[in-house]
Amino acid sequence: MRFTIIAALSLSFIPLALSAAVSDNVLSLCQSPQVVDERFIGQDKNVRLQALKCANSLIHERETSLEKRQTLPIDVCGNECDTNCFVPAGGGPDPNECHVISDALLFDSQNIGALFNITTNAAVITMTFRSCESFFVNQAGVDLQYCRTDWSTVLDFVAFNCQATQNAHGGNCVAADQRWFIQVQNSSG
Fold first, then answer.
1. 81, 107, 180, 185: which one has the fewest Cβ atoms less than 10 Å from its Cβ?
2. How far are the Cα atoms of 38, 48, 67, 96, 117 from residue 72, in angstroms, in the given order?
3. What start and end residues bound the annotated signal peptide (predicted)?
4. Cα gap 165→5, rounded to integer Å
């Protein structure tokens, strides 16, 4: 897995007054989100996981007709992503609290299984612990399969490398083909 840090301006998001359980940043991507699954994961069951169904399409324009015909999830484990840190500094998540999510992912990888699906019916998966929120967005238009260990690695990398000391407040890692991305930010938006 390759990480490239790219300084980026913070994405401008329009806050929506919907569910307090989901941050405004997620809501700006996922219109009228409907929680289709909510549970707590990890050894201590202290990390909230939500799977969201969006009213809008999150499909990225690079999809192929072959992918549209796929019936099985496309395995994107180990795929490269490029890291973008959101500048300026201030208001980012505590990287140690993000590491709790990372540990919960590793625990579930060992006890539930290494792979999980991000379907087109629930194209956004969020995980939250205290100040840290991370979410995976499927923009492929087809079901994807990803590794919990990879999400853990990306989460730790972004959380510890996109903070105030790097003039940042969180960031994301976008797949090279832009079919998916993982974002790390403060849980209050």
1. 107
2. 24, 27, 10, 36, 10
3. 1-19
4. 14
State the pairing for strand pair 132-138/81-87.
unpaired
- Whole-model pTM: value is 0.83
Calpha distance 143→9 (Å, rounded): 30
Alpha-helical segments (H) within 112-179: 148-161
Strand order in the sheet with 115-118: 74-75, 144-147, 115-118
Encoding tokens for residue 99? Answer: 């590491």
**Residue spans per domain, the chain:** 5-11+24-58+73-186
Distance of alpha carbon 170 from alpha carbon 150, whole angstroms: 18
174-178's contacts with Cβ under 8 Å and 24+ in sequence apart are 174/81, 174/82, 174/84, 175/76, 175/79, 175/80, 175/81, 176/79, 176/80, 176/81, 176/82, 177/62, 177/79, 178/60, 178/62, 178/139
Sign of CA dihedral 75, 47, 137, 98: negative
- For strands 180-186 and 115-118, give the pairing: unpaired
The predicted pLDDT at position 71 comes to 66
> 116-160 pLDDT, tens per residue?
999 999 999 999 999 999 999 999 999 999 999 999 999 999 999
